[in-house]
Design brief:
The protein is mainly α and 450 residues long. It has 2 domains: 217 residues, no CATH class; 208 residues, no CATH class. Helix content is 65%, strand content 3%. The protein is built from 14 helices and 6 strands. The protein has a two-stranded antiparallel ribbon. The longest helix is centred in the middle third of the chain and has 38 residues. The relative contact order is 0.09.
Length: 450
Amino acid sequence: MYNLQYSYYELTWLFLAYSVMGWCAGVAVAAVKRKRFINTGVLNLPLCPVYGVSAVAYSVFLADLKEYPLFLFLGGIVISSFLTVITGILLEHIFRRKWWDYSKYRIGFNGYITVPLLLFFGAAALGIIWIGNPLLLQVIHLMPYAAGRLNLMIFMGFVGVDLLGALAVVLKWRSYIDTMSGMTDNMQKVSDSFGNAISRTVKKRLERSYPNLSTEKILATRAKEPVKEKTRFAEGCGFYKLVWLFLLGSFFGDLVEMVFCRFSLGWWMSRSSVVYGPFSIVWGLACSLLTALMYGYRGKSDRYLFFYGTVVGGTYEYVCSVATEILFGTVFWDYSSIPFNLGGRVNLLFCFFWGIVAVIWVKGIYPFLSRLIEKIPKRIGPAFTWILIVLMVINIGISALALDRYAKRQRGQSPQNTVDQMLDEHFPDARMERIYPKAKIVDMESVQQK
């Protein structure tokens, strides 16, 4: 059973503390490289949220690995790498230009991360779990809880305002760049198109911190890009393609697990994550994330894809196991009886299975599904996709409510309102146990909630 070792109050303080320390580290490195002070953060406040989010992710998902240094080290690498790559991809999507680029290093991932950075991530996980968190928690607990909560609300309010302001500036900046890119005949009309003094100040600060974001460089890059009009639905690796891969991956992943259980256990077993339809959310997310992260590496060797899939797949399954147990108080799979397992959440055999799946997916299944998705008529594709998104969101929401109510029934809690009565009527124990035959209710009283 997973033990959440930190309260939400403590995690929020840890987020702020590590965000500040990450900002200080970034400023120090920039000062050494450029011989002057540079605010490397996106926000105006001395915070770098991606470091805070990484530290919180370590604290939530890796705390139980404190006694396993190697797995803690690898977990830190994978979690931070994922957050860094996703952040880089999102920022690049907005500006069509990398904010940072490590492409000059021989070993890396599409310029977003490199080996020294990976080693730093792993060492950071060890330092945070072993040293940083215990020391910071001692300091946090020196404050009276009421005063600490009030200060926390004030600080997070400032962070929220700053974050919204930075987001507004970024979106305005993108609009400005799009306008500049399209004004080829009368450029003087856009001389004042980028907002007020505050917006211009933030823009200049970001350009100093990230030279790749220079408006001139971005416009020059866009000018060199060939204009290619998409003639098919979901062409390339964009939003609609990833949504369809999630849906198809959820469906076929559930069928694969059912067949595997039939031949390994001798009987058909539901492996669905939701109450309506054969959809395994874990598989769907894995297909979408794996595609998004490895789309640019489709030409790599099978060995490379296998190793990548083994590490990332194993970590992904471990994180999903922890997350579902925290959210629903339910264990959906337990590998404790299989050799070389880690807390019953992952095992070496299935990690290798993830590696094999990565090779088969990237080399065989993805190209086939990609061509199939692109055959959807372009006229109806977007609307049809959004209908499916809405239906899946409703399905997931009802499933979450049904699971929560099922867990409460197992603990003897009677229905408290009309919604509970409806859930008891439509999703009784027999139906829930048929949908989730391997689900185990954990004792949430033993989970530390402060």
